[in-house]
Amino acid sequence: MRRRAFGLIFVNETVYVVAKLLTFTAAALGPVALVSVLGGTGIFFGIALGWLLTTLAPTLFKEDITRQGLTQKDLLALVLFGGIWLVY
To answer: Cα 6 from chain centroid?
Structure first.
């Protein structure tokens, strides 16, 4: 494995571990249901990150960022978020 690829994987895993640590800390300090619902908002960050990466590096990352595509993704994300909220 190349050194750069190893570095990228290391950074990615570090971010993942920190995110899990913060989630467990939030669950320990506050209501678990609220933490779970707020954790469901991650889909909106995924949509924003997809748009940003497509804008900055269109040759490496291709995502449908048309108005119709983004509206569809936002509506489906709202449905998912509503479902998570209804479960808790």
So the answer is: 22
